[in-house]
Design brief:
The protein contains 13 helices and 17 strands. By secondary structure, the protein is of the alpha/beta class. The longest helix is centred in the middle third of the chain and has 13 residues, at 158-170. It folds into 2 domains: 2-216, TIM Barrel (Alpha-Beta Barrel), CATH 3.20.20; 231-345, Lyase, Ornithine Decarboxylase, Chain A, domain 1 (Beta Barrel). 28% of the residues lie in helices and 22% in strands. Helix 3 (23-32) crosses helix 4 (43-52) and helix 4 (43-52) packs parallel to helix 5. The two termini are 33 Å apart.
Length: 368
Amino acid sequence: MRRSVGEAAVYGVVKADAYGHGAPGVALELERLGIDGLAVAGAAEVVELRNAGYGGRVLLLGGPESSGDLDRVVRGSATPVLTRLGQLTAWSAWLRTAGAGAGQALEVVVELDTGMSRAGLKLADWRAALDALRAAPEFRFAGLMSHLAESELAESSFTGEQERRFAAAVELLDSSERRSVPVHLANSSAALRRASTRWTAVRVGGALYGLDLATLAGGSETPALRPVMSLKAPIVDLRPVPAGAGVGYRRTWRAPGSARIALIRVGYGDGFSTGFGGGDVLVRGERCPIAGQVSMDSLTVDVTRVPGAVIGDECVLLGRQGKQRIGVGELAGRAGIAAYEVWCGLNRRLPRLLVGRRDRPREPGRDR
């Protein structure tokens, strides 16, 4: 990402347990690699990062929704993102009472709604918010951002319209603010492909984990990106079944001939959706079809084409094995869901094992 975005600062988005990758381990590795800051979606995620030992900057996208959340933000030295003008009044009241002992001004980043119509300050309220932040001693204006609605679409004219609206808003900043305040519009696809959106910082989510949505939307691949996550599990049982035998609930899959069925203990209770059935698993570098419905705690695979398969063999449900690869886009296509939903759906019942660094142990409590 540094090579792609030049001088722009890079903020890594680690909300939703780092898109299912395990936020504590990802945060510490990104800090080691020199990330400029992280962004999360909830106050509890701020606490989790601080408890894990992450010491860098944290943006709370959307801002705290309660006084308890604001307290967590202040105690966690995080920076809330303002999305509604009324938040300033609520935050100011809290800071002047319960938060009076905080000892320093609360940094605030402002998000503008330039057309996504999901969150962000109305453009008509931007001048008033900026004046209020400049005047209030309890706040320090610490950034300006917006979010692009369709940056992965190469032919989008609306992305250009959002750029123009954002540029007009930046014009209200004085010369000192333009030098010192981070300004960021680009998400992953824009950061990689649209230099005009980068400003002084970018917010990168999916690309950090090896996915460029523009590629899934028909754009050219980004060679430097490699998927970070693999989902692997061993064969725990093997059994022969005769031709015509049904496998799994309701016997929806019937053996076309004499077959060998492998059992893998990963199921929809782990977030491997029933929608991923009908596809393949990699066994000894070969694609082998999932046989029947995905169960809560397991799935069954027809490994007939791999006669040497034995109990203990590693199976890849997501990732690469030999010359074959099952990507997140393939799983998303099977289930008819967004690619990010595949990652986020893989829940914490699955252990995360960080690889590539010998000094990084398995995360505590994840011993399944």
